[in-house]
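Here is this case:
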Amino acid sequence: MAAVSAQAQRKVRIRWTTFLPLISPLVLILIWQIVASAGIGGNLMPSPVKVVSEFVRMLTHKVGRYTLLGHAYWSLRRVLIAFVIAVSMGLPLGLIMGWSRKAEAVIKPVFEIFRPIPPIAWIPLAILWFGIGETPKVFICWVGAFVPSVMNAYTGIRFTDPLLLNAARTLGANERQLFFEVAVPSALPAIFAGLQNGLSLSWMCVLAAELVGGREGVGFI
């Protein structure tokens, strides 16, 4: 009986733990509704009910040339194109920089000049270089995804555990095997963290890019 009671208590704790993450969003929505109902902010603070109602309306009625899903498609398309290009370029560059001291000495100084520049700061230059169209938007998203892809791949390779490398060398591994069978697998957690950050930054960048010069996309709305 005691074992059954303890098991039941654990199940109750698990259920409570499952619902705990919902508490803060619900409290935030409640405060939002109270503030909106009190008239604070005027039209600048619509209530959650109005926001949901407008969201449903935009699913079936066009805003500009597209519905909400159509605008979401354009934003997703730009992000994915930029992300694929950024990863295709950034991962090899970061891996090479992390593995080769010579490549690091040649490439990293130039990379470090541009790395601190926020992606959004490139918008005026992107419009100047590429005009108003798809290219500047994809370029801004590419900048957002490129830097984390390079830096995390570089960091992951550079900080590969020396014990793993020495053990592989002792077993007769050559440089190619050290790189592909030891260093790259060891760097995968850092690489995937960089991909996650890059994709998140691309989403933020596409909204800013569409605000400036877009006729379609979530940022345009």
The CA atoms of residues 57 and 206 lie 23 Å apart. The chain has nine helices and no strands. The two ends are 60 Å apart (CA to CA).
